[in-house]
């Protein structure tokens, strides 16, 4: 993942931090959040790998500014799924996720307010339970970019520890060795 980050995001202005989970994923996330000072984290799970095009750092910075200015707790930078209420906010095509939306708090790439992530993740033993069972704070504003704006392109390289064809292709395209090479 680090090699693909370096290839597709050479101008990354934020430090790369790795949260290693233990038996209880949510508690690990909460402890990690408590150990850092930044107010916002750009979270990209280890099974999602950058591919194809350079990351749009300016677009990611713009998403962060919109989140801060709107009071959002979370803004997804990959529209999977996209917002249920698309609208124009701060000249960026971004929309809101309604409280009842499935995957309202998704672990697709997103900016998270650190304290909010720690609070909503803490009770979930694994990331799958987090995505499927939780709704987050119903008073919290959740945003997402819409399909026509993608500041980051990535693929799912692994699923529950198994290599996927897209992961193999992403590594081969970037010249990165992988176990099946």
Q: Would you count the extended β strands for me? A: 10
Uncertain regions: pLDDT < 50 for 5+ in a row? none
The portion of residues assigned to helices is 25-40%
Taken from the alpha-carbon principal axes, the silhouette is: globular
Q: What is the ordering of alpha helices and beta strands?
A: HHEEHEEEEHHEEEEH
Return the average pLDDT rounded to an integer: 83
Distance between the termini: 16 Å
What structural class should be given to the helix and strand makeup? alpha+beta
Characterize the main sheet: 6 strands, mixed
Gyration radius, in Å = 16 Å
Set out the fold topology:
Blueprint: H1 2-8, H2 25-34, E1 40-43, E2 48-50, H3 57-70, E3 74-76, E4 85-89, E5 92-96, E6 110-113, H4 114-121, H5 127-133, E7 142-145, E8 154-156, E9 158-159, E10 162-163, H6 165-174
Parallel strand pairs: 3-7
Antiparallel strand pairs: 1-6, 2-8, 3-6, 4-5, 5-7, 9-10
């Amino acid at each position: 993942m680090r090699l693909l980050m370096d290839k597709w995001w050479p101008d990354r202005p934020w430090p790369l931090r790795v949260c290693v989970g233990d038996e209880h994923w949510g508690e690990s996330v909460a402890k990690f959040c408590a150990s850092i000072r930044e107010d916002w984290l750009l979270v990209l799970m280890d099974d999602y790998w950058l591919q194809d095009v350079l990351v749009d750092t300016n677009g990611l910075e713009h998403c962060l500014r919109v989140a801060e200015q709107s009071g959002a707790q979370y803004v997804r930078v990959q529209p999977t799924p996209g917002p249920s209420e698309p609208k124009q906010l701060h000249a960026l095509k971004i929309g809101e996720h309604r409280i009842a939306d499935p995957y309202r708090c998704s672990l697709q790439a997103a900016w998270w307010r650190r304290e909010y992530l720690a609070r909503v993740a803490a009770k979930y033993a694994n990331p799958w339970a987090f995505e499927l069972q939780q709704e987050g704070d119903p008073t919290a504003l959740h945003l997402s970019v819409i399909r026509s704006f993608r500041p980051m392109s990535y693929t799912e390289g692994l699923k529950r520890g198994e290599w996927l064809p897209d992961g193999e292709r992403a590594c081969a395209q970037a010249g990165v060795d992988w176990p099946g090479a």
